[in-house]
From TrEMBL:
<dbReference type="GO" id="GO:0071281">
    <property type="term" value="P:cellular response to iron ion"/>
</dbReference>
<keyword id="KW-0732">Signal</keyword>
<dbReference type="InterPro" id="IPR002491">
    <property type="entry name" value="ABC_transptr_periplasmic_BD"/>
</dbReference>
<dbReference type="InterPro" id="IPR054828">
    <property type="entry name" value="Vit_B12_bind_prot"/>
</dbReference>
<feature type="domain" description="Fe/B12 periplasmic-binding">
    <location>
        <begin position="89"/>
        <end position="339"/>
    </location>
</feature>
<dbReference type="InterPro" id="IPR050902">
    <property type="entry name" value="ABC_Transporter_SBP"/>
</dbReference>
<dbReference type="Pfam" id="PF01497">
    <property type="entry name" value="Peripla_BP_2"/>
</dbReference>
<protein>
    <recommendedName>
        <fullName>Fe/B12 periplasmic-binding domain-containing protein</fullName>
    </recommendedName>
</protein>
<feature type="region of interest" description="Disordered">
    <location>
        <begin position="21"/>
        <end position="43"/>
    </location>
</feature>
Length: 354
């Protein structure tokens, strides 16, 4: 960023410094005659003022240059991206990245988001640019962003870069990824220390949630369904890692990846004690073939998330500590007894409540 010219000309800072420079004569040296000091004093004072003014001007110039230093980082594609300066206009096409920018204090710089970014409330009034597969290129370009933040799987990356836009692709799937992405976004925003503090706070709150669980809520086998398909949250996903820190046993092994599509028979055979599922996918779940024999269904240990809770749980970002608290609550409830069916749309197994 080029330093802003002084309204009174390029030498105004120096002149201003000189105007306020001290004019008192220096005390006489041990061999200096007072009259000689008086004759030489004004010249010395002027030279000293010049030196001070130049020092102030140089410091201001160097400060401006420091702010304008380019930012270079490697994104999750392995591409090196260089930004000429800290961005002032940001487009975010991934909800977790939108939340991260806002949590780090730069929500006012976000000028456009994807259709799913709905938190915090102030982003709801921003232009919606579509999703990963149908981003409105024309609308995005019209916003003149300094940088576009999006997921690695977004189809528009090449087109945006072809138009000369700066694109940073970041897509966290594990807790280690989340910590790294927080650091990358902090680097982009010039808020490295804030990013480190945010991660420490998230990590500490997850530990606090784990500490609240009674022994009976630990060791329960859990199936977390992230979407119909069914797709589950595996052991190596950020959801699976939070569950592990809460003492739960994930039925999906690490070798299947973070969010695998599962054969429904696999879930029936795994026979989880607890099922966590979003409200959208809950209706009819007990009627899936063979699922009435699953312990979580028979004993009514299903935690059904309302949409706002699902948003918290599936976004690997600043609200992961809230996600841990929600999952801990589910495990406590499951350990305590049957969980009431949450909505009329949810169809209970034959016989209703047990």
């Amino acid at each position: 960023m080029t330093p802003t010219p002084h309204p009174q000309g390029p030498h105004a800072p120096l002149q201003e410094a000189l105007r306020h420079a001290p004019r008192q004569p220096l005390p006489p040296g041990p061999h200096e005659h007072p009259r000689a000091r008086r004759r030489q004093g004004p010249g010395l004072s002027l030279r000293r003022g010049l030196r001070q003014g130049l020092a102030l001007w140089a410091a201001a110039l160097l400060s401006g240059l420091a702010v304008a230093a380019p930012i270079t980082l490697k994104d999750d594609r392995g591409h090196t991206v260089t930004l000429p300066d800290t961005p002032r206009r940001i487009v975010s096409l991934l909800p977790s990245l939108t939340e991260t920018v806002c949590e780090l204090g730069d929500c006012a710089k976000v000028v456009g988001v994807d259709r799913f970014s709905n938190y915090p409330a102030r982003v709801q009034s921003l232009p919606k640019l579509g999703g990963l597969d149908d981003t409105s290129i024309e609308s995005l370009v019209a916003l003149k962003p300094d940088v576009v933040l999006l997921g690695v799987s977004a189809r528009v990356i090449d087109r945006l870069e072809g138009l000369g836009l700066k694109v940073v692709a970041l897509e966290p799937k594990s807790m280690t990824d989340v910590q790294r992405v927080l650091g990358k976004v902090g680097q982009i925003l010039g808020r490295d220390d804030d990013a480190r503090r945010l991660w420490n706070r998230i990590d500490g709150h997850i530990a606090q949630s784990a500490a609240t669980l009674p022994p009976g809520a630990r060791g329960l086998s859990v199936y977390y369904e992230v979407d119909a398909g069914p797709y589950g949250a595996g052991t190596v996903s950020f959801i699976g890692e939070i569950l592990a820190r809460l003492g739960a046993r994930n039925i999906i092994p690490a070798e299947l990846g973070p969010f695998p599509k599962l054969n429904p028979e696999f879930i029936v055979r795994a026979d989880p004690q607890v099922i966590m599922v979003g409200q959208r996918n809950a209706p009819g779940l007990p009627q899936r073939p063979g699922w009435q024999s699953i312990r979580a269904v028979k004993n009514q240990r299903l935690c059904v998330w309302v949409p706002a809770e699902s948003d918290v749980l599936v976004r690997p970002g600043p609200r992961m500590s809230e996600a841990a608290a929600l999952m801990a609550r589910c495990l406590r409830d499951a350990a305590a007894g049957p969980i009431a069916w949450p909505t009329a749309a949810f169809v209970a197994p034959p016989g209703g409540m047990r």
